[in-house]
Specification:
12 strands; alpha+beta; 5 helices; about 250 residues
Amino acid sequence: MTNRTLYIVCFFLLLCHKKCLAQSKNDSITFDSIAHNLPEILVKGERPIAVVHGSAITYDLNRMIEKKGVTNIYDAIKELPGVTEAGENFMLANRNVTISLNGKVLSLTSEQMTQFLKSLPASRIDKADVMYSAPAKAHVREALINIRLRKETSNGAPLEGEGVVAYNQQHNAKFGERASILYNKGKFSLDAMFLHSHGKEYQVTEQETHHKLDDGNVYDINNEEKRSVKMFGHDYHVGAEYDFADRLSKI
């Protein structure tokens, strides 16, 4: 009687074990099915054109000009919001503007600065920091626009070059040929640019004067002067940088 009871108990235990295995297998199949049928997740991101950092507004100037056919940094600055051109100077909210490159204010006249900015290719631009009131460390009382130049090549290669030929036809023709290179490897970067400009300028000067003599007679004298001036120029720029930041941080 005891052996029969033992057999019955073993039989029921065996049936329960098989049922638990089948249930666990079905649960596993159900879980796998749910895992495979999960919908895809789409992540969207945005790159803002302007970001506020304290008193400065940083513009992604490279993106702002990518479809506008701008070829030099001088014309690129004119695309910044609120910037106007007055002669050979920039104005921002009716205030004079000082231009700096990579945080450095250059000791150049307005004419020299204009020519220099026109000689730099727009492809070198990274970002532009616009400050309506310059910080004290800049030693500038005017508004400040800091142009950040790329130190790395756009395609990751150590060397990048660019050549541009320009033609301007007004009364006479003017030409310009520009070549620039950018080298970057490790902590060292080197950039160089050369611009050759040549052609003719047509100038007209008109004067109208009134001369009164001692006898009381007044004579009107009109003078018109026309000149055709042959011009040429050579502009070049060479800059090199080495980043000591990592080494200094370890000292």
